[in-house]
Specification:
By secondary structure, this protein is mainly alpha-helical. The chain has four helices and two strands. Strands 1-2 form a two-stranded antiparallel ribbon. α1 runs antiparallel to α2 and α3 packs antiparallel against α4.
Length: about 120
C-alpha cells in the first residue's frame, strides 16, 4: 500500500470514521492503535523488521516517563539519545558503515516522505 494510493486513502478514511463512532478517548486510542498495527502488518510480514522501530519508540517513551517523573536533568540526555539513535537508524553517511544493522528494518519517514514507513 503506497501512501499516495487509493487504498491508503480509503484505509485512512475508514480509520477516521471508526475512531469517531465514540467520543471516548479510550475508544479513539484503541481504534487508531489497531489501525496502525494493521497498516504496518500490510507493509511487512516478517515481525523482525519492526524490532528497531519498537526499540526507538520505547526509547522516546522512556525519556518522556523520566521527564514526567521529575527527572528534568534527563531531558537533555533523552533528547540526545533519541536524536543519535534516529541518525544511526537512518544510516547517515558520516557514521561508519560497519556500525549499521545488516538486515532490512522499518523506520518512520523516508527522504521523500515524512510519514511513510519504508524498509531501509
Amino acid at each position: 500500500m503506497d501512501s499516495a494510493s487509493f487504498q491508503f486513502v480509503l484505509f485512512g478514511l475508514a480509520a477516521a470514521i471508526l475512531s469517531n463512532f465514540s467520543r471516548s478517548r479510550v475508544w479513539r486510542s484503541l481504534v487508531l492503535f489497531a489501525a496502525s498495527i494493521v497498516f504496518l502488518g500490510l507493509l511487512a510480514h516478517d515481525p523482525i523488521v519492526f524490532l528497531p522501530l519498537i526499540g526507538f519508540l520505547l526509547l522516546g517513551y522512556a525519556g518522556l516517563l523520566l521527564i514526567e517523573r521529575g527527572w528534568s536533568r534527563s531531558a537533555v540526555w533523552s533528547i540526545l539519545a533519541v536524536i543519535l539513535v534516529y541518525v544511526w537508524l537512518k544510516k547517515y553517511t558520516f557514521l561508519p558503515e560497519g556500525s549499521f544493522l545488516r538486515y532490512p528494518y522499518f523506520t518512520l519517514g523516508s527522504p521523500t516522505s515524512s510519514f511513510a514507513c519504508c524498509i531501509c
